[in-house]
Structure formats: C-alpha cells, structure tokens
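Attaching the record inline, Q. Sequence:
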Amino acid sequence: MSPSLPRSSRHGVRIPAIGLGTGGLGEDCAEIVAAALAAGYRHIDTARKYGSERGVGGAIRAAGVPRSEIFLTTKVSHEHLHAGDFERSTQASLQALGLDQVDLLLVHWPAPDMPLPETMGALAQMKRRGLTRHIGVANFNIALLDEVISLCPEPLVALQAEYHPYLDQSKVLAACRRHGLVFIAYCPLARGRLLGDPVIGEIARAKGRTAAQVALRWLVQQDGVAAIPGSSSRERVAENIDISGFALTDDEMKRIAALARRNGRVVNPVGRVSAWDV
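Structure, as predicted:
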C-alpha cells in the first residue's frame, strides 16, 4: 500500500498521490472501489459523466473506512456550466453518491461558449455552501487556467489533466506550481500503451517492479503530481498503489521523460480545447 505518498498545495489541501479513476468501470464499479479501499486507496475519482457516482458512494458507505480519510472528487460536465445547471449537476452528484459533500469539485472540460465569470462564481458557491471542501478544473490549458484563477472568488487547488511519459506536460506542471495547484494525472498509463515500452520495461526489471509501477512512480516522484490510474482488475488495482517501496534515480527519471512524443496524447475530444500547451 502507499498511503504515505500525500500531495499538498499551499491552499491547505492534502491529496493522496495515488487514487482510483472510475471512468469506464460500469457495473463493476462498486466492487472495484471496494477492492481499492481494502488495498489502501484513500483517493477516489468519479464524475457525473462517468455514471459511476452511485457505485462509488455505495462502496464508500459499505467499506468501513471513515469518510474523513477518503479524498473524493467529482466533476460537473461542460453541458452544465451556467449557474443554475451547475448547481443542479452538483446536487445530482451528491444524491447519487449518497453524501452531503465531496472533497474536490471540478469543472470537467472547458467549452467554447463557457461563461467564465458565471461558471467560476457557481463553482465558488458550491464551496461556500459546503457542498465541496475544495474546487478546481480539469483539461484547461495554461491561458484558461490563468484566467479562471483570476476570476474565481475562491482559490482553486488542483488541475486534472492527462499526463504520462508519452505526453510532455512540463509547461502545464510549471503553471500548476506557479499557482500552488496539485496536478492530478489521468490516463497515467496512456490506457496501457506504455506498458510494453522497452525503456520502462528495462527499468522495471532492474527494480523488480512492473512497468505500471515504474510509470506511476515517475509521476508521483515529481513535485506536486498525483495520479489516478483505473482498472477493472483487482490485482492491477492493488499493484498500482504499491509504489512506495522504491525510488527512481535522476537518470531513470530523465530517461522516462525523454519518451515524450508528438502524438502522445490519448484524450482529445474535438472542439473542447482550442490549443494544448505542448
């Protein structure tokens, strides 16, 4: 287990460095979340769009883990960024989860016609009303991130975005550090694409670890980065959090960073982001 790998921001939030992503888990969601909590996960990520909130909430209530020990994230989709819609989406998420509050509420994706001041005001209101402890955004480029931080009446604490060795996110990570945000990496294994990578495989063999463990260690060994791998396999869920017993050398970190490629992005819905920072 790896509960000893917290991540912090200067805004007072502590986010466990390894979490469970629940997108795509479907009917197995509750079972996998229960297995993750039993394996030591204390960071669970869901979203209104995933359809996993009900399963996540049920697993949390049944797990016997104090709610205060679990860092739970959900998200408001890009179709619901006007104030009234935003609140209805948040309330629907809490109802599905069976909870009064989440730990982190994110805007899931930007939209070309997003009313930024209204959206940031609505996001801040969710925190001020106690529906979430912290707020942030996902999939925003640096220009949008700078803009919403200046507009939001409450401090943002995290940016969630795709990040793995095949995708250079050094510019975005620098912006997060400048703003005191935790960078939460989704698709941290590039949906399995890097598990057969020869460089990662060589390092994994030398460490007596799996390729997934090395790739995740590479992420969380960077200052201010957390990762939320997802899997429908109980064994892989347990494997993914078991990364606290080894470290990568500076040379190994550089070798893995050098794997970044121009076509490394896995998630890129048409029309959502005008320009990525790569």
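The chain has a mean pLDDT of 95. The first helix runs from residue 29 to 39.

More tomorrow.
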